[in-house]
Amino acid sequence: MKPVWLLLPLLLVFGPSVPAQESGQVPYIDTHAHLHGAMGQGRSDYEGAARLALQVMDELGIRQTILLPPPFTSGHDVAYDIETLKPVIDKYPGRFRFMAGGGSLSPLLLDAARSGQVSEETRSRFIAVAERVAASGAVAFGELALEHFGLGPGHQYEYVPPDHPLLLLLADIGAEKDMVLEVHMEAIEREAPTASRYVAFGNPAVMKPNIEAFERLLAHNPKTRFVWSHMGWDNTGQRTPALMARLLAKHPNLFVNIKMGPDSLPVNRPLERGSGLVPEWAQLIATFTDRIMLGSDQFYVTPASNKRFPIHMRPVRDLLDALPRDQAVKVGYENAIRVYRLER
Description:
Blueprint: H1 11-14, E1 28-36, E2 38-40, E3 43-44, H2 46-60, E4 62-67, H3 82-90, E5 96-98, E6 100-101, H4 105-115, H5 120-135, E7 140-148, E8 158-159, H6 165-177, E9 180-185, E10 192-193, H7 196-199, E11 206-207, H8 211-220, E12 226-231, H9 241-250, E13 254-258, E14 271-272, E15 276-277, H10 279-287, E16 292-294, E17 298-301, H11 313-322, H12 325-339
Parallel strand pairs: 1-4, 1-17, 4-5, 6-7, 7-9, 9-12, 12-13, 13-16
Antiparallel strand pairs: 2-3, 7-8, 10-11, 14-15
């Protein structure tokens, strides 16, 4: 049988191979993955996408997956949030948890950033939506786009200043509700030209720094836990081990999850094919073992759809297997349980 990550749609027919747990590998929690259940013409099959996710989880030793909506824009034709995720997740207790806000809070943030204004009506509506997310059983607000590159046709560039008033407000709500803010932000420490491969998809030709504004968000309420997604998957060339070490050392409320795959720039990847963990990344993980988790960012697509997304689960599994076992246990699942309060 071919590897699971090459034949995802066929798993529902042929079933998984030997579970990773039986091989002695450390099981893990995938803290960041998506369902794609849209089939066009108003039809959807999110439960089919979830069943496929379960098959893959059993194959790779994923104990639990946190599902979340991507950061949608207003009027997106396949946007979803709590109402779509929760009924599916409730059918598989223990295997899935969820975040929410990508289909509800994110559009409000993006609209406010574009308008340059935050009216009292917008602020009140934003608070009401955040309260609804917090009461839904979600473990975090997410996924929230601070700087999100468009990566292909129909995939839009999204930007919200990291220190935007609504994000500062949400940080205070997160502290009050003991909930994580899960953010997607390309790392831009210094101004630089955007890689040519991205400019064609509506991204700015010049990247403007965003790290200082992000640090203002982190410092706004030290009680708020932030997870900066997708370390190890870099579209700017600037999310280096050195930058991450500096920010993690300075901001105790910052956490990260690791994503890897061939669809980003070929720099700042923790694993080098054929040579294992890159020393600088190995040192970062060893130094901040309590602050790092795994988040594949895999899109699980209903077998009823022909849509395809890049495969990210296998590199994450490989990285976990490359770590010393004591680090793998923390990075694999202990940190996720603690950061997202999964015991609740």
